[in-house]
Amino acid sequence: MENLRDIPGITLIALDVTDIVSIRSARDQVAAVLGEGKGLDLLVNNAGMAVSSAAIDTDIQLTRKMFDTNVFGMMAMVQEFIPLLMLSNDPCIVNTGSTAGLVPYAFSSSYNATKAAVHSYSDTLRLELKPLGIKVTAIWLGGVKTNMIQQKPIPFPETSYYAPIEALVRKGRAPPDNLMTAEVFANSLVTASLKRNPSRRLKLGSGGSMMSWIAWLMPDFIMDYMVYKVLGLGELARIRKSAAKAN
Question: Which residues lie in coiled coils (predicted)?
Answer without folding.
Answer: none
